[in-house]
Amino acid sequence: MVPSGLANTGEAENLSNIQARASATIRLRIAITCTTADCPPTGFFLRYSRNSGAYTVVPDTFAADNIAFCGIGPDPDTPTSGAPTTDQLSTSGTFVAGALVRTSNAIPTVDLALNGKTEIEYCLSLDSDAVAADTYDFRVYKQDGSVINAYTVTPRTTVISAFGGMGF
Amino acid sequence: MSGRTIQYLGSLLVMFCLAVSPTYAAVRYTDKDSTGCSTPSDTDYDPVTRACGSGSATVYNTIAGGLTVTTAGDTLYIRTTATPYNETIRQGVQTIPAGTSWANAPLIAGYPGEVPTLRPSSACEIIGLNSTANKYIHFKDLKLDGTNLTQSISFGCYNVSLDGNNNVTFLRLENIEITKSPWNGLLGGCSGCEFINLNVHDNGLAAQQLGYGPGNNGVYFTGTNSLFERGQFHNNNCYGIRVFNSAVFPQANDNIVRYVKAFNNGYGIGNSGASTCGSGGGGLIVADQDNLLYRNLSTGNWKGIEIIQGGGVSDDNRVLHNTISGNTNHGLAINQGLRTVTDTEYKNNHIVGNSPNLLDNGTGSVSGGNRTTGSVTDCTVSTSNFTQKAGSACIDAGTIIADVAYNGNAPDIGAFETFLFAFCAVEATTPTVVNITFTNNVAPPLLPASSITGFSAREDASTKTNSSTTRVGDNQVDLTVTAAFSSGTAIDISISSTNLTDSSLVANTTNQPFVQTVSNQSCTNNVAGAPSFVLTQARYEWH
After folding, report:
1. What is the pTM of this model?
2. Parallel, antiparallel or unpaired: strands B194-196 and B227-229
3. What is the pLDDT at residue A11?
4. Which residues contact B154 (CB under 8 A, 6 or more apart)?
5. Residues A72-88: pLDDT tens digits?
6. DSSP H/E element including B18
7. Contact call for A32 and B531, based on CB within 8 A
8. 3.30.565, 1.10.150, 3.40.1350, 2.60.40: which CATH number matches A14-160?
9. How far does B530 lie from chain A, in Å, by closest CA?
10. Is A34 within 8 Å of B543 when comparing Cβ atoms?
11. A20-32 burial, b for 16+ CB within 10 Å, e for fewer?
12. A98 interfaces chain B, CB cutoff of 8 Å
């Protein structure tokens, strides 16, 4: 399935610099691994960096940066908020279910043992006036606002102009 | 002085002075040795070349001329000249500027780095103020030479003459040398005044030579609520500083004399041994009420410190933390004249090497923590350097006074208070820096602010290489090393032969050095270790 709004779909992992149109709803699944030792239960927040600025918590409603969680409105293509995730990405280790996150209140707390892994999927929307060529980078943070230990990948999407004229 | 908190008074006054550091509305100059300038004034003076024609400053060739245009907030800088200024600064003779607060007190001062001399060829006073209009005036960096003042047996002449009824208020004399006054170097009173780092010496000889028997002092002060801080008072005919009135009114009450050094004053000693002071004289003498003598040095005088009764009541005076040594006729004498001196508090004074050390004929005196036995060098570095030495018998040997700060378990005895190592730690955010904290409640901040020597650090017994050692805040020293400390290691520091001192600046010359032994003192290691677990954002996928 090609999600609504994706100009360039990416079933492949770690696809760099995906393009998304203004008003699009996009879903991003991130895998987190635990190595070296048993990890404590951790709540994960998603933050974004617009145009390489500071990482900011994704809000529930649009603000000046034109990005927000997609919300909990009914959408046949999107699971309900909090739905557990399954092991889909190619990281190794013992999978622990994460969750699908559609609002900032849904903070999955995941307890990963040594060599464990989890996946959290975020549903995000771009505002209709999102600016073409703006970039958004995404990273998970701990819920106390601190970074996790490492980011070997950082997904980025770039805004392109919304469809004009009649649809198809 | 009852109930007054002493410990932070010095700091508060300094902070007050800094906080209200005035902004001067106009800066003008007096320079009688200028080149190419019109008289009495010119407007194109260059303070660097001291010539007119290429500058833009206003210059006068006399102090009096400069004073005529100086108003609140202004500065009049007086230049050093080949010969002294033959001028005076007197109410009723010259225009005397005034401010309305310390923030706009006019500054009449030697040009920065210069100390011009005022030596009038004929006058009875050099600075003479007597009006209620004389308030908030700041004199700084001047030498007042009374060599040529009128010498008379029938009336006194003084380098600085202030009204005896305290009409003058909020006068500040700072870095002023007062010398060779025929009578007292400074006479009179004022209220709310500050006398900072005065150098008062060789006064009173002329009156004695004319046949005036009682003698004269470096300072004869009858004012109230005023401060004498730091400075030196020496080789005067009678006392270095006298704070009381021989008359009943006004009384000299609520004054503070602190961190000064009074030496070589009085009978047979002052005026290079020529003094025949009728009262004997000495370092410091106080009567009247609620005056405080705190952390002064009084050495080599006829008497060290006296508390007597003057014209009025003598009550509740305090003598705290003074070093009194090498005085010929009593170190500390209370009511030697057998009049009425009540409720004198004298504590934590180091009174040794005098003949005798202590006489107390007062009523209701309260004493404690004084050291009157042994040699002065049981505590001090030498008989001329009165700072506490390492292992001093005076350290922590005093008695605790409720409103006086100290370091350690108890106050030290004498004018100087040692300060102590308190704590050291290396924090995770700055793993190359050892934060070393000191207890220095009496005379902050620590000095110097940078290039501090004598500190070293080790990690697991291996010496680290120093990068810099600087002061942070008032009482912390940061020792920075070239390589970061690691988590879980043993960190310790040593301090040896350091140049670290407090800021007591007694006599405007001497701070207490750090004398405590600190060898391989353990520090807290707060450097974070390698993470015990690693959470990694490892993969992602768009949908």
Report:
1. 0.75
2. parallel
3. 62
4. none
5. 777 767 777 778 899 99
6. helix B9-19
7. no
8. 2.60.40
9. 11
10. no
11. bbbbbbbbbbbbb
12. no
